[in-house]
Amino acid sequence: MSYPQAPWTLKGFAFQTLHLIDIATASPFIPPELAIVSAAPGKTLGGVYLAQYGAGSSLEYNELIVVAGVVRREQTIGAWVSHIYVDNPDSVAGGREIWGMPKELATFDWQVGAQRVVVQQDDRVLCSLSSSWRVSLLRQTITFPAYSLLNSDFLRFDATASANFGLIGAELEVPNTSPFERLIDTVPISAFGADSLELRVDAPKVVAQRVSDIP
Fold this sequence. Notes:
Layout: E1 8-22, H1 23-26, E2 35-36, E3 43-53, E4 61-73, E5 76-86, H2 89-99, E6 103-105, E7 107-111, E8 116-121, E9 124-150, E10 153-173, E11 190-201, E12 205-209
Parallel strand pairs: 5-6, 5-9
Antiparallel strand pairs: 1-3, 1-11, 2-4, 3-4, 4-5, 7-8, 8-9, 9-10, 10-11, 10-12
């Protein structure tokens, strides 16, 4: 496989849903070496991210990310991605080998002027999202950290997004055959759209080693 080295710059658009997830439900999807951060009593914050990256990107592909929760190591918080799907084999290889992301291949069907997307693996629907109304916000730049695991090393990296953000009405469907059906409630607490998105994903840094791998 051939893929660019980090950082990757990705340009396109995206949708993000936010969900309160029971910590007891999220826990099996998150390594025990990381502390789960509460967003409400007994709950952490997670969500679904769907994006299309086009011309001007380090690689062109579609992406589905499922965040199982917000985690903390020492005093630094970040997102933990439990599931991630793309439709470009080079993105799979780069995501796994650079960032330790568990990327898998899937197909993405964008419909109705990119206001609806259905993501599938073979004949299994992973999820679908439809966007209706939108309330535009100012263009903003947001940096959010994430943790991942590559072999026995915990990694941390930053992703910085600059976009025309907006609140959206979103209808999310996660079939009971989806591998993340237990995690994601179909009714988000809020949802956002990001137009004219410019996303930079920095190279990761090793921050710790798995306890089970330390002699």
